[in-house]
């Protein structure tokens, strides 16, 4: 993840994001360090990716919550376009299906996924991001999502390289992470564009933007540390309903 690789963003805003990720030592958290040091067993890696499948499943809902907060139709259309791109312009191989194909290619069936329990660490990340986008200020929500998308530039590249170097899959079978390495740069910029003017002009607004950036960086970094920490556990269930019931 190179510094300042999103064009036309306020340098102070961008430097704040980069400096925060450096302070967190994000690139060297336990998950990515294990990948870089080739100390991640295939079965453990797959187990953590089954958990992340549920994150990918619910991420579009975070975007919809933000759309509801935007007063300007042009701003809403930018985020709706992101959703459309995540669904591959409406064709059957949408964002979630490309992740399912990635897992299928690693030997995991949809039935295998449905048998797994959702770890509390995964639920905590989902509900924190979702709750922020639903209940908090639009500046907090947009900067949180922009930070997550920006961090995912590095995540996609690192995971893709590891899978290829270990000959677990060929390039054409990576699907999800190859797609996101291309899309996340644009999506991160779109979210940060929503807050960049407020960052430049109003100190009070800058505080809320920092809150979103801080939460996005902290929560995603924590999630991957926790996924690695509990990578050996195998938790199963007897039911196949959605992990999260929506009651609002």
From TrEMBL:
GO molecular function, one term: oxidoreductase activity
Keywords attached to this entry: Oxidoreductase
Gene3D superfamilies: Heme oxygenase-like
Superkingdom to which the source organism belongs: Bacteria
Pfam families attached to this UniProt entry: Haem_oxygenas_2
Transmembrane segments: none
Annotated protein name in UniProt: Pyrroloquinoline quinone (Coenzyme PQQ) biosynthesis protein C
Organism: Candidatus Babela massiliensis
Species lineage: Bacteria, Candidatus Babelota, Candidatus Babeliae, Candidatus Babeliales, Candidatus Babeliaceae
